[in-house]
Amino acid sequence: LVKIKDCSEEELVRRLHDMLGTSMPQQGSEGKVVCGVGDDAAVMETGPDRYLVSSCDMMIEGRHFDLSYTHPRDLGYKALAINLSDMAAMGATARWAMVSLAIPAETTLHFWEDFYRGMLELAREAGVAVVGGDTTSSSTIVVDVFVMGEVFPQQLICRFSASKGDCILVTGELGSSAAGLYWFQEASMRGIMEKSRANPLIQAHLRPVPRYREAAVLRNSRVGAMIDLSDGLAAGLRGICAASNTGARVDYNLLPYRPEAELLAEKAGHSLQDWLLYGGEDYELLFTVPQQYVDSLKQSLEVETGTPAVVIGEVTGPEKGMILINKSGAESVIDPGRCYRHFT
Amino acid sequence: LVKIKDCSEEELVRRLHDMLGTSMPQQGSEGKVVCGVGDDAAVMETGPDRYLVSSCDMMIEGRHFDLSYTHPRDLGYKALAINLSDMAAMGATARWAMVSLAIPAETTLHFWEDFYRGMLELAREAGVAVVGGDTTSSSTIVVDVFVMGEVFPQQLICRFSASKGDCILVTGELGSSAAGLYWFQEASMRGIMEKSRANPLIQAHLRPVPRYREAAVLRNSRVGAMIDLSDGLAAGLRGICAASNTGARVDYNLLPYRPEAELLAEKAGHSLQDWLLYGGEDYELLFTVPQQYVDSLKQSLEVETGTPAVVIGEVTGPEKGMILINKSGAESVIDPGRCYRHFT
User: Fold this and answer.
1) Which of A107, B123, B161, B280 could form a disulfide with B225 if both were Cys (CB 3.0 to 4.6 A apart)?
2) Distance set, CA B43 to CA A41, A53, B153, B162 (Å)
3) Per-residue pLDDT tens digits for B172-217
């Protein structure tokens, strides 16, 4: 018997897409499903010139977070943040959130309240109303946040719209979250780097800032395809390339990273490249833009949000696959299989 | 330190309401939250004359279902059904669903596909599109379904609109699901009743039919308050009475039940009253109607959906509390604390 762990995630998504796709009720223009399984969020037509966008992300104790170094406030914050990142990747504005929370009955009320306090910190900043949810008991903590938002049809950004010759850009820095996780799991025990020094990496891991402000600029720009980097750069590139039927050529020397990540990699004898290419949970936006619009877009983004975006490569034809130019200028194939995998 | 299990569910909902209520972003007419924490679903204003309604319900293996007698198709069906029931309780039309599913990597692909097949059976019937979700691995199965729907403002039915003197009605039969669960957990092992005989109870437990067709009639009728009976009749009554600031007087002799439930109770020496009053997961609708509209409403419901609704009591002033008239005509207090509790 074939088991879930024997299937690639692409295989599961394809099967789900096939099952669900054929089951969509035939509806009129209203209620039409614009994007279903296979993008960062689902998009439904709710009226003329009006799309509803929704996403959900489940976090499980021991798998997605470790309470020995995650404060409940950070957990609440991050559970919402990863969903706001999905909405940003579609160019959508998040408006409402619901929370399903399973916790042991022995949990303190204080922990429970802190979880919501952390979530509400971000909700207020992002203009999102937390409208309800479900609380139940379990032996380990499970958090599932649903976010609903809106986008005008002409502002919607999907994964499938990359064109050959477009530049590939990324916001902020790569690998910080993976480096922060490594600090908690390995480096802190071995005394490799002081906490104060590693703090930017730690914060990137515990409190990733979803790029909703940046999305508000990007949805009014000439962006082709966009995705958020929840599972790492290589997985994000594959997401865009597979949906758009393109290849990609990325220059390692152009990848943005924090000096603390480089220092930690050096001190620990860890590969910086692994963090930048395959490290998950950065929640930066990866997107494509025709070359002639790159400079003005970078400037708008910097002026309006203070966030830098840099060109890291270009979209190629599908026959080229996904290629990395390394430090010495040599080319190699990018393997998204080295990114975070949910079932292995 | 106060723990979650030390708090009543009402206490948790009140605290959540206080935390979330004060955090709602000040928005204009669009995006306004009409109902938040404390009803079957959340209601948001998305445009003039247009409300978006959303609900979510999490099911955890070992707590909410037992795979030794629950087929994955039934699990997928029920995970959607309980959410469609929440939407029905608001008078809303469910349109889209998302699924977060955590399963062990060792699960067979066949199990996973059957789960979705069961969900899609109901989705097609109810005209709901399953638009996506999240799949991740865990040691036990967790299913969280999120449903979005729509309702016109004048058709929205909340818990807080019961009026003194209104009749209290319920659709279908009570206690069947609790009796079905009892059959699996106790009666089947002791050979008390044959499976074929218990089948209506078993089906009520494994495949509850959400009352969305009935809701389509009720939202165009003179219904005051409405709630679904996910946690039992007593909890449903409390939900309406607490929100509407009323009491209720229910006649035990009027409660509808299946003959198989009565027979099983007799044979097993179990209290039928316990199932009818405190048994959860019936997913029937409990609602209030001014007396002069009761007959025409019952007739419309029967003609348009084939589902009976019966008067089981009346709404009283809050000072009377919740009273049960028992078989012999004596009165006792209804204790919702005997219903399903999530943290004890």
Assistant:
1) B161
2) 21, 16, 10, 19
3) 999 999 999 999 999 888 889 999 999 999 999 999 999 999 999 9
Which backbone phi and psi does B72 adopt, to 5 degrees? Answer: -55, -30
**CA A191 to centroid of chain Cα atoms:** 30
Q: Which residues contact B104 (CB under 8 A, 6 or more apart)?
A: A4, B137, B138, B139, B140, B141
Residue B18, pLDDT score: 86
- Do A110 and B146 lie within an 8 Å CB cutoff? no
Task: Share the mean pLDDT of chain A.
Answer: 92
Q: Are strands A309-316 and A285-289 parallel, antiparallel or unpaired?
A: unpaired
Give the residue from chain B lying closest to A125, CA to CA.
Answer: B25
C-alpha neighbours within 13 Å on the C-beta side of residue B162: 32
User: What three-state secondary structure class fits B103?
Assistant: strand
CA distances to B1, B97, B149, B158, B209 from B87, rounded to whole Å, are: 37, 11, 7, 11, 13
Contact B58, B70 (CB under 8 A): no
**A88/A82 Cα distance (integer angstroms):** 10
Contacts of B99 (CB under 8 A, 6+ apart): B79, B116, B119, B130, B132, B133, B134, B143, B144, B145, B146
DSSP 8-state code for residue B328: T
Please give the pLDDT value at position B7: 87
DSSP letter at B92 equals P
**Which pairing describes strands B322-325 and B247-251: parallel, antiparallel, or unpaired?**
parallel
Point out the residues of chain A with pLDDT beneath 50.
Answer: 26-29
The whole-angstrom separation of Cα B28 and Cα B32 is 7
Structure tokens at B280: 């959860």
By Cβ distance, the residue of B20, B23, B342 closest to A135 is B342
**Sequence letter at residue A84:** L
- Tell if the CB–CB gap between A129 and B98 is shorter than 8 Å: no
Which residue type, as a one-letter code, is found at position B312? I
Instruction: Determine whether the interchain pair A96/B342 forms a contact, defined as Cβ–Cβ distance below 8 Å.
Output: no
CB contacts, 8 Å: B19 with chain A: 113, 116-117, 120
**DSSP-assigned letters across all residues of A164-220:** TT-EEEEES-SSHHHHHHHIIIIITTTT-S-HHHHHHHHHHHHS----HHHHHHHTT
Establish if A56 touches chain B: CB-CB under 8 angstroms.
yes
Mode of pairing for the β-strands spanning B50-60 and B142-151: antiparallel
Model pLDDT, residue B29 = 47
pLDDT number for residue B13: 83
SS3 A322: strand
Q: What's the N-to-C CA distance of chain B in angstroms?
A: 17
Who's near B239: CB < 8 A, 6+ residues apart?
B159, B227
Intervals of chain B under pLDDT 50: 26-29
Q: What is the pLDDT of residues B228-249, one digit of tens each?
A: 999 999 999 999 999 999 999 9
Of chain A, the end-to-end C-alpha distance in Å amounts to 17
Q: For chain B, say whether A37 makes contact (Cβ under 8 Å).
A: yes
Q: Which two tokens stand for residue B123?
A: 């989705």
Helix (H, G, I), strand (E, B) or coil at A138: coil
Provide ipTM, 2 decimals.
Answer: 0.92
CA count, 13 A, side-chain hemisphere, B72? 15
Q: Is the entire prediction scored with pTM above 0.90?
A: yes
Q: What are the backbone dihedrals phi and psi of residue B150, each rounded to the nearest 5 degrees, phi first?
A: -135, 155
Q: Which two tokens stand for residue A53?
A: 């966008």
| Beta carbons of B129 and A24 less than 8 Å apart | yes
Query: pLDDT at position A61, please?
Result: 95
